[in-house]
Amino acid sequence: MSVSAHRGEILHFLGNPEIERAAAIAHFQDGLLVIEDGVIQYCGPANQRIETLPSECQIIAHHNALILPGFVDTHIHFPQVEVMAAYGTQLLDWLETHTFPAEAKFSDETYASEVARFFLDQLLANGTTTALVFGTVHPQSVDAFFTEAGKRNLRMICGKVMMDRNAPENLRDTPEQGYKDSKNLIERWHNKGRLGYAVTPRFAPTSSEAQLETVQNLIEEFPDVHMHTHLAENREECEWVASLFPDSNSYLGVYDQFKLLGRRSVFAHSIHLSDSDWRRLGETSSCVAHCPMSNLFIGSGLFSYRSALEAKVHVGLGTDVGGGDSLSILRSVNEAYKVQQLQGYNLSPFQSLYLATLGGAETLDLDQKIGNFTVGKEADFVVLDYAATPLIDFRIKHCRSIAERIFVLQMLGDDRAVRQTYVLGEKSKPE
Ligand code: GUN
Ligand code: ZN
Known about the structure:
By secondary structure, the chain is of the alpha/beta class.
C-alpha cells in the first residue's frame, strides 16, 4: 500500500456552481489531499487530518500554488497537432488544405506512435489528464494512441474516424470496413484499464446513410461506448448537411434519425442550433463540447452557453486541436469567457474551472471516477503556480480573494502555469 499527502491551497467542485451556488465549491486555504494507491482517501482542511497520517506517509508541500483536479478536454484530435496554427480559411477549406493531408500520414503506425507520445506529453504539460480524442480513419492510429495512453496510466477515450464519402480516397473507409474496424478496436481496448472507446463518425457530410446505420448498430451492440462527432460548427457546413439530407428537418435531426443521441454522445461545437435542437439535446441527455479557441480561430461562430444551461445540457470544454490554436484548457477558459462576454453572459471564474474539471467529467459520463476530490475517485490533479511568470506573480499579489486569483490564472495562464501534473497520484509532467 502506498500513501502520500499533498498540502497546499485546494479547490474543487461538488456540483455545478450555476445551479448549486456556494454549495458546489470546496476551497481549503490550507488543505490536504491524501492519496492511497492512486485513489483519493481524504480532501479537506490540513489540520483535521495531518496529525493522524500514517508515519510512512510522505507529505509534499505546494507553496504559492493551487491544487485542482486534472483538466478534462472533451474534444481534441491527436493527429492534428501538426496542423495547429495553420494560416488561412474556414472549416471546409481548412479540412481539405491542412487536415486531410496530415491525417493521411497516420496509416504508418510508427509515425502515429511518435505523434501520440508527443501529444500526450503536451497534454500533461498543460495539466490535461483526460480527453475525448479523435484518431484518423486508420485503426492503427487508435492502437498507437491507446498503447501510449496505457503506458502513462491515463484515463482516455479515443476512436477511429468513420468516413466513407466526401473525403480523399486514402482517408475513406466503407460502411462494412468501418464497422469491422471499430468493433475490433472496441473488443481490443474498451474498458482496458482506464481506456474507453468512442464510435467516431467524423460528421454527417462524410458518412453515408449506410454508414450512420452502422454507427447506430455499434452503439446498440456496445451500449457503454461513447459516440463522438461534430455538429453545427460552421454555416456553410450546415447548408451542406441540409442539401445532403433533404429529408431531415435539422442537422441534429440527421443524428437523431439514426438514434445517435444519448448520455454517452458528445457533439463538438453545437453552435448553429435552434431552440428545438437544444430541447432535443436536453431531453436525450446528450452532451456538448464547447471549443471556443477553434470557433474563433477558424471563424465558426459564438457558442451560446446560456442555451445549454436553459436546456440542461452537459457542457465540457474542448481545445479542438488542430482547429484550436492551443492545447491548454486554461487558454480555452480564457476564450470561453470572451465568447460569452460578447453575448451578455458573465462566465464566473468558478463556473469556468467547474467546466474545465467536474463539468468535463460529467460531459464524458466519467464523474463517478474523476473530476473532483471526493473520496474514492482517481487521484489525477494539477498544481498551478501563482508565480508562473513575472506578470502572473505581480498580478496575483494584487488579488484579494480566491475568485480573483483563479481568474488571473485563467486569463494570463497557459502551460507555464502548470507546475506539476499528477496521474493516479504519480508525478507525470514531462521533465
Ligand atoms: N468537422 C469535421 N471534421 C472536423 C475537424 O477535424 N475539425 C473540426 N474543427 N471540425 C470538423
Ligand atoms: Zn474537432
